[in-house]
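thought: user wants a sequence for this fold. calling inverse folding tool.
action: design(structure=
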């Protein structure tokens, strides 16, 4: 029955993580998957999460079914985190991680809207392609980043968006662009939103790294600007990184509609899609975050822990960039310093990335995406020397 199934191409990011775990090199460094490591190289259990989880355990709640759309309290908290306040025009449902929100959004587009196409940035997170194509959408690109110059291709991006048909779905990263770490400035966001309005496009914002750019509220600039317009839009968000709840698979999908009544109907559509897919979401992660966000002190503790993570990443950017500059690198070290979020699109080519892996057991996602939090004071010199080695002119 299954003999016709041939081998599958491994996922470029997840398979790298598996290879890293298998690697026995004593100095191996994981700069691949988007995962925050602390200064000692450990994945942290955030204090605020730990306290919230303890409180939950003390309550000895039974593990009953949640509503199809997940916790209503949690949905409201997502809206406050993203938009600064709750809004009856927005239908928010809990999702199975940020990826689950993207898939649910993709299913919604496929089943309820007329155009079965989406435009994503070139480049974008590899799994955007997999999720949208897997849901039956045709995936197209708009220009975004030039890896040679290290600059945004902003004019080309605007030109492409300006030529899209009415109703076209455009995937945008509100902060910490994955993989380039290069975000739009505020004036550039306003210009994009103008085009979205003029062309009557449908933006789909994917925010997986809220809090890792400039701050929890600052990273939502684009979302809050677009909310001021009459545009309908979708937002997928994730709690994998900013609450370090990777394995709990916790996120949300929000759909902003013209009216509260339209939002009710859209929520009904989302519930239909959820019920026939996985029925309803898991509850442990959402109860942790719900408990955390409902308590002022715990929320503040979480925000300060997140700020420290953000600062540590910035410090690693500065240190690596300075080390490469001092070593006389040919690499554009300034972009490593200036890009935002967990990633830097270093400009290292595929061959250099594979040399780093073969010779030094340093793992990056090809072609040159580095996850900065994998760096720390113990491995910084090792990584700097290795990059200098592989980028030395022949
Ligand atoms: C990444 O880009 O490394 C993360 O979003 C993790 C993933 O699922 O790919």
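)
observation: tool returned 394 residues.
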């Amino acid at each position: 029955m299954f003999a016709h199934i041939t081998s599958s191409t491994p996922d470029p990011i997840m398979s790298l993580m598996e290879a890293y775990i298998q690697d026995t090199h004593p100095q191996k460094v994981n700069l691949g998957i988007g995962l925050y490591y602390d200064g000692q190289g450990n994945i942290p259990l955030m204090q605020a999460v730990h306290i919230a989880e303890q409180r939950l355990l003390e309550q000895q709640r039974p593990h009953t079914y949640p509503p199809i759309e997940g916790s209503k309290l949690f949905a409201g908290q997502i809206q406050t985190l993203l938009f600064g306040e709750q809004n009856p025009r927005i239908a928010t449902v809990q999702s199975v991680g940020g990826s689950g929100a993207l898939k649910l959004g993709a299913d919604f587009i496929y089943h309820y809207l007329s155009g079965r196409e989406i435009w994503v940035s070139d480049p974008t997170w590899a799994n955007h392609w997999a999720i949208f194509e897997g849901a039956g959408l045709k995936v197209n690109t708009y220009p975004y980043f030039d890896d040679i110059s290290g600059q945004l291709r902003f004019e080309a991006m605007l030109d492409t968006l300006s030529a899209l048909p009415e109703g076209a779905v455009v995937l945008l990263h509100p902060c910490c662009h994955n993989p380039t770490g290069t975000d739009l400035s505020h004036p550039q966001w306003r210009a994009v939103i103008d085009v979205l309005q003029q062309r009557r496009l449908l933006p789909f914002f994917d925010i997986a790294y809220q809090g890792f750019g400039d701050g929890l509220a600052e990273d939502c600039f684009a979302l809050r600007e677009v909310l001021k317009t009459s545009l309908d839009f979708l937002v997928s968000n994730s709690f994998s990184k900013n609450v370090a709840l990777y394995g709990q698979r916790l996120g949300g999908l929000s759909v902003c509609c013209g009216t509260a009544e339209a939002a009710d109907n859209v929520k009904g559509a989302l519930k239909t899609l959820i019920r026939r897919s996985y029925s309803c979401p898991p509850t442990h992660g959402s109860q942790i975050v719900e408990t955390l966000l409902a308590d002022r002190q715990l929320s503040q503790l979480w925000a300060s822990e997140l700020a420290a993570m953000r600062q540590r990443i910035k410090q690693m950017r500065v240190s690596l960039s300075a080390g490469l500059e001092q070593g006389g690198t040919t690499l554009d070290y300034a972009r490593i310093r200036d890009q935002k979020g967990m990633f830097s699109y270093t400009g290292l080519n595929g061959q250099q990335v594979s040399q780093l892996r073969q010779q030094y057991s340093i793992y990056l996602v090809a072609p040159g995406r580095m996850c900065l939090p994998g760096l720390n004071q113990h491995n910084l010199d090792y990584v700097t020397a290795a990059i200098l080695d592989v980028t030395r002119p022949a």
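thought: summarizing for user.
answer: Here is the designed sequence. The pocket of (2S)-2-hydroxybutanedioic acid is lined by residues 13, 33-34, 125, 127, 178, 208 (CB under 6 Å).
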